[in-house]
């Protein structure tokens, strides 16, 4: 089950996110074998970062372990690799380590949550933002402080490299805000007008009157600049017939679908039988050895002394496309 890290505040009573240098979701996800459904950005990062990522033709063998890019089947590494290459060729996406950390922290499975909670438990100041923040110019920033050494009069300074905060004290837009904060505090401050084209660094520094401070930072990536779209491709109908005048004759034929501007997902290929007179004497199968450029299926009819056998069907397969977003 996918568990957004923002939920950990309720699961563990600890901050939702800490600095990437201290609690690194990249390293945790690298070891996580139970990821299920992820975003386009996370799928791309996961495939590039996991130690067992393979580019060999493995469509009929091990798969990447989750439904890639919204496809309702688990795909092989060859399909995943082809899709990753298509995204990079269309968009020139080049994620930094900070961007890895932002995207991956929202997609830790239950298996990885314990490791992340243990790391977060050592942090005193935390900052969290919605998982949609990378594609949003405005969102709420959550700041919490759990120091056992809190003193009256402590204050938190919240800063961002892009955009303006709405100061909860006077509702004015400011590049940074300073607010009173107490132990166990959990506050939300609106950040608006951030530049979607660049990474936005958000920091929180808590200072006590008697000296000493705690700090945390989160880096919100620019919008990824792409969306993955899927279409169901259909082949032309195929009919095979075996005549009763030649009993026990087997007749087979093949139909194929070629990719257009995207990547075919051979794991999604299916037959749809449109018409048949003897289901016990006809078979359909998706060919082995299909890849992301061509998917084929074979239809077979076998006559017998009872009469002719005819069957008509077509195959379908999902094709994934990458749509770069307008700047």
Order of helices and strands: EHHHEEHHEHEEEEEEEEEEEEEEEE
Number of strands: 20
Strand order of the largest sheet: 5-6-11-8-9
How far do the termini sit from each other?
34 Å
Name the overall outline. elongated
What are the low-pLDDT stretches, counting only 5+ consecutive residues below 50?
1-21, 33-37, 51-61
Beta-strand portion reads 35-45%
- SS field, number of helical segments: 6
Mean pLDDT: 75
Radius of gyration: 27 Å
Class by SSE composition:
alpha+beta
Helix content: 10-25%
Main beta-sheet annotation:
5 strands, antiparallel
Descriptive notes:
The chain is α+β, with helices and mostly antiparallel strands. It is built from six helices and 20 strands. The longest helix is centred in the first third of the chain and has 15 residues, at 77-91. It starts with a strand and ends with a strand.
Q: Which characteristics define this entry?
A:
single chain; 327 residues; alpha+beta; 5-stranded antiparallel β-sheet; 4-stranded antiparallel β-sheet; 6 helices; 20 strands; 17% helix; disordered N terminus
């Amino acid at each position: 089950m996918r568990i957004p890290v923002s939920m950990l505040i309720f699961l563990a009573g600890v901050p939702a996110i800490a600095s990437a240098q201290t609690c690194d979701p990249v390293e945790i996800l690298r070891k996580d074998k139970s990821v299920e459904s992820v975003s386009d950005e996370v799928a791309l990062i996961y495939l590039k970062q996991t130690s067992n990522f393979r580019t060999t033709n493995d469509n009929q063998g091990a798969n990447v372990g989750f439904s890639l890019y919204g496809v309702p089947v688990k795909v092989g590494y060859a399909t995943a690799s082809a899709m990753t290459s298509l995204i990079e060729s269309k968009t020139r996406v080049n994620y930094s380590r900070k961007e890895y950390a932002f995207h991956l922290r929202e997609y830790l499975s239950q298996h990885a949550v314990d490791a992340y909670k243990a790391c977060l438990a050592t942090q005193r100041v935390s900052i969290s933002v919605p998982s949609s923040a990378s594609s949003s110019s405005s969102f709420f920033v959550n700041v919490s402080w759990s120091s056992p050494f809190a003193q009256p009069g402590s204050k938190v300074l919240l800063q961002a490299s892009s955009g303006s905060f709405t100061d909860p004290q006077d509702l004015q837009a400011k590049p940074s805000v300073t607010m009173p904060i107490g132990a166990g505090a959990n506050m939300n401050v609106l950040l608006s007008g951030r530049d979607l084209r660049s990474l936005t660094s958000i920091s929180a520094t808590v200072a006590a009157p008697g000296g000493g401070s705690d700090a945390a930072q989160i880096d919100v990536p620019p919008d990824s600049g792409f969306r993955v779209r899927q279409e169901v491709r259909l082949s032309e109908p195929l009919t095979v017939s075996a005549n009763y005048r030649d009993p026990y004759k087997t007749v087979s034929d093949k139909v194929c679908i070629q990719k257009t501007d995207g990547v075919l997902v051979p794991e999604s290929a299916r037959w749809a039988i449109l018409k048949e007179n003897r289901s016990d004497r006809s078979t359909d199968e998706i060919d082995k050895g299909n890849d992301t450029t061509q998917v084929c299926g074979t239809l077979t009819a076998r006559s017998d002394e009872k009469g002719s056998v005819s069957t008509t069907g077509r195959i379908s397969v999902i094709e994934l496309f990458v749509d770069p977003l307008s700047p």
